[in-house]
Design goal:
The complex is a heterodimer of chains A (about 300) and B (about 180). Chain A is an alpha/beta fold. Chain A has helices at about 15-30, 60-70, 90-100, 115-120, 135-150, 170-180, 210-215, 235-245, 250, 275, 285-300; strands at about 45-50, 75-80, 105-110, 125-130, 160, 185-190, 205, 220, 260. In chain A, the strands form 2 sheets. In chain A, strands 7-6-5-8-9 form a 5-stranded parallel beta sheet. Chain B has helices spanning about 10-30, 45-60, 110-120, 165-170, and strands at about 5-10, 35-40, 65-70, 100-105, 130-135, 150, 160-165, 175-180. Classes of the chains: A alpha/beta (about 300), B alpha/beta (about 180).
Chain lengths: ~300, ~180
C-alpha cells in the first residue's frame, strides 16, 4: 500500500486504507522524537514551505519540527510579514514560491478551498493545515492516532464532539475520519452552532452536553472562537460555559475511562474547566506530541522520488 | 516458466550455524560485558532473538536486545516513488560504550549495514560495532564485511536468496531461487 496522491487536502477524499497507512506510519515515527538526537536523514535536500495566512502556534511549529526531524529545510511565511500586506494575491504568491522549487507547501488560509485551488495550480505537494471552516486533515489524523493509541481501536467507539460545530474545521475533518473508521459520533452545541444539514454526515445531534456525553468513550471539546462573538451566535461566554463547559460535575456521565481531547488553544473555564483540562482523563498534550509524528508521516509519504 | 528453488540450509544446519556464531560472539568479545544485540528489521529480528536465547543457555545471562528499522536511513529512498512501510525501532537502552552486535539474515550489497551503522551512531557512541549474518552471498558495493557468518553462499546476481524462519514463515530453511527469465 502506497499513498498515491500528490496532496493532502481533506479527510473526505481519503480511503480507510490510506488513513490506516498514515496512522501506522505515524506510530513508527513517534520513537524518533524520544531519541537524544531527534533527527533522521530521510528528507535531506527537500524543502518545506509553511505558508500561514492565519495565526497558529501548534500547527505551524508542529509542521516545522516534523520537517526538521526528517532533515528537510523549512521556511515559514506568515501573511502579516509577507508581500500579502502589499496586496499580492494568493496565486501570485504561490507561483513565486513555486519558482523557488520547494517540494511541499503547507498552507493555512481563512478561505475554504484555498489549498485545493493551489494544488491545481502548482506542481508541489500541498498539505492543508486548515482552510476556513472546511477541513483540518492533520488535526483529525492526530486525533485518530491519539484515540487509537489509548483505546487500541477506532471501530465502535462512541465519540462526542462538543462546541461550535458549524465553524469548526476540526469537527468536520474528525467526523469524516471517525465515521470512515467505524466510530459512532454525536455532536452537541447551541442551536446556532449546529449546521443545518449535519445529520447527513451520519452523526447524532444533541442540544445538551449531558445527553451527548452519556456513556461515551471520547469527548472532543472544541474551542469557542471568541473572535466570532461579535456575530451574535451566542449571547455570552458565561451562558455558554454554564451550558457546555466540561467539568467535574458532568464528566461522570461518560464512561469511567473516557478520554478528553481538545485541539487547542484552550479557553479555560469556557469550554473546559482547568481541573478537567489538566486532569487524568485529558490527553490534550498527547495530541500535540502525536501531531508531530502524523506530520512526519505525511511528509515522508508525500515526498516522492523522480516522478 | 521454470522456477528452480534449491534448499541450501535446512533447520538443523541453520541451528548449528547459529550455535557456532553464538560461541564466536562470546569468544571474540571475551564474555558478555557491555554486549548488546541489535536485530535489523525484518530479517534480523528472529535471528537476534535466537542468538539471545543461545547465549542465555550457555552463560545464563540475557543480553539486551534491540530492534532497528533502517528504512529512514536508506540511500535509495528518494529515488523511487514506492515508499516502504516504516517499522518500529525499539532500542530501550543506551548504546554509549556498548559492544553492539548487529544481526541480519543476508549480507549482500552492504547498503543495509551502512544505513544501520548510521542509525546506530545517532543513538549514541558504541565502543564497537560487529556484524553477524546467517548468509553472506557476496556482491558487496561498499567496503563492509561481517565478523560472524553462518554460511558463505556464493551466488549469482540473478538469484534470490531467502531465509525462511519458523517464527515468520512457518519453516526454517535457506532457499536459492532462480529468476524465471533464465
Amino acid at each position: 500500500m502506497i499513498l498515491e496522491r500528490k496532496d493532502i487536502l481533506g479527510i473526505k477524499e481519503l480511503s480507510k486504507d490510506e488513513i490506516l497507512l498514515i496512522l501506522d506510519t505515524a506510530d513508527s515515527f513517534i520513537e524518533i522524537s524520544t531519541r537524544e538526537i531527534k533527527k533522521v536523514p530521510t528528507l535531506r535536500g527537500k524543502t518545506v514551505i509553511n505558508l500561514f495566512y492565519e495565526a497558529s502556534t501548534r500547527t505551524r511549529t508542529s509542521f516545522e519540527i516534523a520537517a526538521k526531524r526528517l532533515s528537510a529545510d523549512t521556511i515559514n511565511i506568515s501573511a502579516s510579514t509577507s508581500s500579502v500586506v502589499k496586496g499580492e494575491t494568493l496565486l501570485d504568491t504561490a507561483r513565486n514560491l513555486e519558482a523557488m522549487n520547494p517540494d511541499v507547501i503547507v498552507i493555512r488560509h481563512s478561505a475554504a478551498g484555498a489549498p485545493h485551488m493551489l494544488a491545481g495550480m502548482v506542481k508541489q505537494s500541498i498539505i492543508n493545515a486548515g482552510d476556513g471552516a472546511h477541513e483540518h486533515p492533520t488535526q483529525a489524523l492526530l486525533d485518530m492516532m491519539t484515540i487509537r493509541a489509548k483505546k487500541g481501536r477506532l471501530e465502535n467507539l462512541n465519540i462526542a464532539i462538543v462546541g461550535d460545530i458549524a465553524h469548526s474545521r476540526v469537527a468536520r475533518s474528525n467526523i469524516y475520519g471517525l465515521k470512515k473508521m467505524g466510530a459512532q459520533v454525536t455532536v452537541a452545541g447551541p442551536a446556532t452552532m449546529i449546521p443545518r444539514d449535519i445529520e447527513q454526515m451520519g452523526v447524532t445531534v444533541y442540544s445538551s452536553l449531558d445527553e451527548a456525553i452519556k456513556e461515551v468513550d471520547v469527548i472532543m471539546m472544541l474551542r469557542i472562537q471568541i473572535e466570532r462573538q461579535q456575530q451574535n451566535i451566542f449571547p455570552s461566554l458565561r451562558e455558554y460555559a454554564q451550558r457546555f463547559c466540561l467539568s467535574k460535575k458532568n464528566i461522570s456521565l461518560a464512561k469511567e475511562d473516557v478520554l478528553v481531547m481538545h485541539p487547542g488553544p484552550i479557553n479555560r473555564g469556557v469550554e473546559i474547566s482547568p481541573d478537567i483540562a489538566d486532569g487524568p482523563y485529558s490527553v490534550i498534550l498527547d495530541q500535540v506530541t502525536n501531531g508531530v509524528a502524523v506530520r512526519m508521516a505525511l511528509l515522508y509519504l508525500l515526498t516522492g522520488g523522480k516522478a | 516458466m521454470k522456477n528452480k528453488n534449491r534448499v541450501v540450509m535446512d533447520a538443523e544446519a541453520i541451528d548449528r550455524s547459529l550455535t557456532r556464531v553464538a560461541y564466536e560472539i562470546l569468544e571474540k568479545n571475551k564474555g558478555l560485558d557491555d554486549l548488546v544485540l541489535i536485530g535489523i528489521r525484518t530479517g534480523g529480528i528472529c535471528l537476534a532473538n535466537r542468538l539471545q536465547r543461545k547465549i542465555a543457555a550457555m552463560e545464563g545471562i540475557e543480553v539486551p536486545l534491540g530492534i532497528l528499522d533502517v528504512t529512514l536511513y536508506r540511500d535509495d529512498l528518494l529515488r523511487t516513488n514506492k515508499k516502504p512501510r516504516i517499522g518500529k525501532t525499539d532500542i530501550t537502552f543506551s548504546l554509549d560504550d556498548k559492544k553492539v552486535v548487529l544481526v541480519d539474515d543476508v549480507l549482500f550489497t552492504g547498503r543495509t549495514i551502512r544505513a544501520a551503522m548510521d542509525a546506530l551512531i545517532d543513538f549514541g557512541r558504541p565502543r564497537l560495532i560487529q556484524l553477524a549474518v546467517l548468509i553472506d552471498r557476496g556482491h558487496r558495493e561498499l567496503p563492509i564485511r561481517a565478523d560472524f557468518v553462518g554460511k558463505n553462499l556464493p551466488s549469482s546476481l540473478w538469484e534470490d536468496v531467502s531465509v525462511n524462519l519458523t517464527e515468520k514463515d512457518g519453516v526454517d530453511e535457506v532457499v536459492i531461487e532462480m529468476d524465471s527469465e533464465e
